[in-house]
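User:
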Amino acid sequence: MDTKNVIAAISLSAAVIILYSLFFAPAVVDQKDISNDKNVSSENSSTDAPSLAQDEEIIKISRNEALKENDRIIFENDKIKGSISLIGSSIDDLTFKNYTNTLNGDDNVILLNPKQSDNGYYVETGWATTNKNIDLPNSKSLWSIEGSNKLTPSSPVILSWTNSQNIKFLKEISIDKQYLFNIKQSIINNSDKTYNFYPYGQIIRNVAPDVTNFYILHEGLIGVFDDQLIEEDYDDIEEKKYSKNAQSGWLGITDKYWITSLIPEKDKSFRSDFDYKNKFRANFIETNATEVGANETKSNSIRVIIAAKEVNVIDGYAESENINKFDLAIDWGWFYFIVKPLFFAIQYFFNLAGNFGVAIIMITACIRLAFFPLANYSFKSMAKMKVLQPEMTRLKELHKEDKMKLQQEMMALYKREGVNPISGCLPIFIQIPFFFAIYKVLFVTIEMRHQPFFGWIKDLSERDPTSIFNLFGLIPWDPPSFLLIGVWPCLMGVSMYLQQKLNPTPPDPVQAKIFMFFPLFLTVILAPFPAGLVIYWTINNVLTMAQQYIIIKRTTVKTVQ
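Assistant: Predicted structure:
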């Protein structure tokens, strides 16, 4: 492979990315567009709907103290457990039963926390009004339980609160067997007056969590408004508020593996805000008032999904609950059309083999098989280039003073032998999207989290934990992270070096030395990457070498050396 091939490969890859972003990429708005949207939405947001901003002083206490501070409704199903505070009726305590913080640990992942804790993270729902003479339940209001005091899939709970105007507020909360809360809010107006109310929901997070801070993954505030995906980082929201009027959609706060989301009632227009004022908020409020006449009852429903981002679950809710583009809660990225099908393919092979590492090897073989004819053409051309190198060297010496004549003779040689000098870039070009797709699958999908391979690889989504600098564990020393170059990265480097030996040697000695160190360079670069990705690359190199070796042995040329 020469410099022209590398340049061509890079150019082709860039072209794919650009063309996809122009014609196929989901409608993610860049920062410039977002700024424009903010200006527009600020103007469009001048509705009668009131602001949800409220200032309150909170005395910070520990999580355990906060959970014991007031009465709560306990909830539990197959996937989650937690509680709902009767003060404010907020969902502020949630633990995932099937996920732990560490591999083989017993400390389950806790997502939601009471607002009094330092890392408070909770969901509020309710009603707002522009009438300052009406008492409304707020974050400090104490709700009463009507009936059951434990929330299960078979047992909903009902909360009530009555104001001084004899208006009764009810919340009927139900939960399914996974991650969905359904909150039916009712207003029973026992007064002799008519009032207007605006249903709302909001997710509040006191502080930004530790994020991966990597370009291929969004962590922060997210929403789909009228088919448009909006992603806002925490630091962006600290600087500038985002506001949007929409007729449909959903919103929330997303982590790498978890999502807290709100789905407004269908066919109701709403205003959504992402903002920061000492805490992060993702909220919505309906823009058309709900008029409740004297002795009248009106209701509104809000769905809350607080989930581990399991692909089948997220897709299931998108379909069963008719939530538009809810599958984008998982950050599939620009190459959605490759990444998501690739995940399902890996999932299929996992169901067959019972091991995600084996599934990755099987999908690698399938990718090689799918592109076998194209790779075959490329490798045949490269094999001929390798065989023709002595002849090419002879021509360069013969016509070293006449560059034009040399070019003509080289082109004639290529034509006579049926050689395409840029064909060597084709395998690279083919591999780039799938390499990125595998990386994306390993990086963003919770299904890959804490999945073992064989031997020392206990988590395919993490780097190979061994290091050549302690002889892979033979020396009792733990090297720093930047020296963790494990067994699989080394195998990958060796396979790349051997594969390189099968390619034509660059005629330029400087180029040849650069390419000689290229496998070492990639070994160091890829060492921190997920072990599953390195395994994919290694197996791909081995299969490529086998194909190249067979082709080289069968390749002949017409030119007499």
